[in-house]
From TrEMBL:
The lineage of its organism: Eukaryota, Metazoa, Chordata, Craniata, Vertebrata. SUPFAM superfamilies: Clavaminate synthase-like. One of its GO terms (biological process) is actomyosin structure organization. It comes from Takifugu bimaculatus. PANTHER family: ALPHA-KETOGLUTARATE-DEPENDENT DIOXYGENASE ALKB HOMOLOG 4, OXYGENASE-RELATED. One of its GO terms (cellular component) is contractile ring. One of its GO terms (molecular function) is oxidoreductase activity. Gene3D superfamilies: Alpha-ketoglutarate-dependent dioxygenase AlkB-like (2.60.120.590). Its cofactor is Fe(2+). This is Uncharacterized protein.
Amino acid sequence: MDFPVSSRKLLERMQQEPFLSDFRPVEQCNLDYHPQRGSAIDPHLDDSWLWGERLVTINMLSDTIITMSLHEAPTGEIQVAVPFPRRCLLVLYHDARHKWKHAVYRQDVEDRRVCSTFRELSAEFLPGGQEAQLGAQLLNIASNFQGMPV
């Protein structure tokens, strides 16, 4: 894949892991959190129609906490605070991807935090899916990207 050098090397390293060997991201989302600005991200599930089974995030610059919450629990909401050290990779998949919401709360951003999240296409956009042709186009664009990230 032709990403900026640091992203390309990161993807090559990720794909050395057996669980991510077939991971073909079509999006890289970079977020920059600053405690002075009150940076945070509310509990959410990433779209399942477009984005595939695995969400891969690398945390850079500082440690933080990812809060996972399950709203369908018989006893009410369950929250789990997951330490996310700097320079670590988090892969959300299966129930963690589709049932548990994830968030980074304002009080958990103590220092500047930069993260990159990579998303793959859902089965609907892969060979055999209803949108396979569009998926092939998107994968082609992503794998040949030579512009500047925005």
